[in-house]
Write a structure and sequence with these properties.
- It is a single chain.
- It contains ten helices and two strands.
- It has helices spanning 2-34, 40-55, 57-78, 106-109, 111-114, 117-125, 134-155, 161-166, 168-192, 194-215, and strands at residues 82-88, 94-99.
- The protein is 75% helix and 6% strand.
- It is globular, with a radius of gyration of 18 Å.
- The protein has 216 residues and is mostly helical.
- It has a two-stranded antiparallel sheet with strand order 1-2.
- Strand 1 and strand 2 (94-99) form a beta hairpin.
- The protein has a domain at 42-178.
């Protein structure tokens, strides 16, 4: 009964999260337009990925599968799961087995679609890069962003076990919320920095909260 109740209230929560993130992405787009020169390196990386994908197409399936299982593993560890096995193949899929108190966890199940692992790792390292080298460092950031986008596009099927197990409608809403969130954070990081990206998201949330509250 409790699980069904939590499932029901999760939908309005997700819709609110989507609205906040969509608004934040819109604001991030305005910031990006004002700082468009900051995106030359990032854009070059996105374009470069199209060529890399063709060049490395024989190994890309394995790398995407490996990253898929890696995202499951990272989020599983954050929820104190015990990892029993990790497997990735070139063409035959992969699997990560785990156990723990919160083993049936939507965050773990949908992590590969919601967590651009390499992009966030690079954004953290970006904090210590000399400003003059940031445009060059943003090239691999763009590559990693494009890689994640293509990997999600490949796996975003209602036949995927992760998505079926969590419920197709719920999964797509959940993933959409995080796609907007990630894009807003990544674009703002390139425009105004990592710390500013998260403070900007918080300000967007508070702005909408006050606007909606004033409406009532």
């Amino acid at each position: 009964m409790l699980f069904r109740f939590l499932k029901i209230i999760s939908y309005p929560v997700l819709l609110v999260f989507i609205a906040v993130n969509a608004f934040s992405l819109f604001r991030a787009g305005i910031d990006a337009a004002a700082h468009y020169r900051c995106f030359f390196g990032f854009g070059a990386g996105v374009v470069a990925y199209f060529f890399l994908r063709r060049l490395l197409r024989k190994n890309m399936d394995f790398f995407e599968t490996f990253t898929h299982e890696l995202a499951h593993t990272i989020v599983g560890l954050l929820f104190f799961q015990r990892i029993h096995s990790f497997e990735a193949t070139n063409g035959s899929g992969g699997m990560m087995r785990h156990s723990g108190r919160y083993s049936r966890n939507v965050f773990i199940a949908l992590a590969p679609y919601c967590l651009p692992v390499y992009t966030y790792v690079l954004l953290v390292f970006r904090l210590v890069i000399i400003p003059d080298f940031i445009p060059f460092f943003d090239v691999p950031v763009g590559v990693s962003f494009a890689f994640h986008a293509f990997a999600v596009k490949r796996d975003l099927s209602p036949r995927q076990t992760d998505i079926k197990d969590c419920g197709i409608l719920f999964s797509y809403l959940f993933i959409a919320a995080f796609i907007f969130f990630n894009a807003a954070i990544i674009f703002r990081t390139i425009s105004i920095g990592f710390a500013g990206a998260f403070s900007g998201w918080r300000n967007d949330f508070l702005f909408l909260f006050y606007k909606v509250s004033a409406g009532f």
